[in-house]
Amino acid sequence: MSHSASPRPPRPLRSRWARFALVAGPGMVVMLADTDAGSIITAAQSGAQWSYQLLLLQLVLVPILFIVQELTVRLGVVSRKGHGELIREQYGAFWAWVSVGTLVVACIGALLSELSGLAGVGLLFGVPAWTTMGVVVAGLVLMAYTGSYLSVERIAMAIGAFELVFLLVAWQAKPDVAAMTAGALSIPWHDTKYLYLVAANIGAVIMPWMVFYQQSAVVEKGLTPEDLPAARWDTALGAIITQVIMACVLVATAATLGASGKHAALDTVAQIAGAIVPYLGEGTGRILFALGMTGSALVATIVVTLTAARTLGEVLGLKHSLEYAPREAPWFYGFYTAALVVGGLIVASGTNLISLSVGVQVMNALLLPIVLGFLYLLARRLPAPYRLGRTYEALVALVILVTAGFGVYAGLAGVIG
């Protein structure tokens, strides 16, 4: 596996905390984006329909999420190439377009879901969708055009931090600890509806665009093999935080709707807000929920839009970095802008996106075997110091097989249902 650039001069020795502070970012940002509007809806649905019976799954998914994303860190710091570029180099342009082309469509679909979530938050306060879309699109375009990778990373982390209010939401819901423990250990494996939500949760946590984003981000940030330990901690901490947020949303709806027996459908931002806000107090509850949902949807919007623009640039051999000025990378900034503007116009028009959301979920699920398969094959080609050990390689293969299998199950169940 060749390098695309000469190694960066080694950083001077510094404390572990200082090194971590310097390296951290890509893992945290992609994990905060992982808890996007669709994931929040999935977690809320899980708590409303099955109370605490899907809570244990949120903890089980932490190491799985880390295993998958840690491979992208290895590939990025060793090859110093994005995921799409690496597939093209190792397997040819055809397979690069098979993987990347479908990914871009999935990113656009995810973008519409995030923008719809933001519009839904605005409507909670009487703000028209077109006003919300105008502010969001203008703000994100300005951010990219005037900032560097590091500034965008810091903005994304600051916005994503608002998701932590879901911890307070769960606390205010006053869950019964005994009921929580008993429910988490009660797992109805033979119920197909339960298994479908298990698959949906896996699909909400392991997303194809996360692989592409984090690998490109570690390359753009200039991380090298000496940064690998700190980058792993960045990824591990992000995996824990995102699953804690998912668990908190599940607990909030389980403690309210799940405990009351009102197993309502929670498919939109308004439905989730209407379900849990009354239990938290109209004023405080509405503000807390709005902050959390806004943080999750905004950081995901940044990530999926940048992922699509970067990946297209990788396979086309064009400049695809925020470190270039717009005049130096017109196609990269052009696609980024066009995706936001078109997505904003579609959402502002009031188009019914429910059927599109189902299609996006199916597409993401069916894309998992391709993306995770290439991730595993590329990791096997790493040079000796970074190659997977025999036992760990078998574990990674098993995790990828099970994750991709559930992804396909969710996709097929969505089509059939």
Descriptive key words:
417 residues; mainly alpha; Amino acid/polyamine transporter I; globular; disordered N terminus
Layout of helices and strands, plus pairs?
Layout: H1 16-23, H2 26-34, H3 37-50, H4 55-79, H5 83-91, H6 93-124, H7 129-146, H8 149-160, H9 165-172, H10 177-184, H11 192-205, H12 208-220, H13 228-260, H14 269-280, H15 282-316, H16 330-348, H17 354-379, H18 390-416
Helix pairs in contact: 1-13, 2-8, 2-12, 2-13, 2-15, 3-11, 3-13, 4-11, 4-12, 4-13, 4-17, 5-6, 5-15, 6-7, 6-15, 6-16, 6-17, 7-16, 8-15, 9-13, 9-15, 11-18, 12-15, 13-14, 14-15, 15-16, 17-18
| CATH C-level class | Mainly Alpha
Mean pLDDT: 85
CATH architecture: Up-down Bundle
Number of helices: 18
Total DSSP E strands: 0
Q: Could you please say which CATH topology applies here?
A: Amino acid/polyamine transporter I
Give the biggest beta sheet.
Answer: none
What low-confidence regions span 5 or more consecutive residues with pLDDT below 50? 2-9
Distance linking N and C termini: 43 Å
CATH superfamily: Amino acid/polyamine transporter I
- Rg from alpha-carbon coordinates: 21 Å
The percent of residues in helical segments reads: over 70%
Strand content: under 5%
Secondary-structure content class: mainly alpha
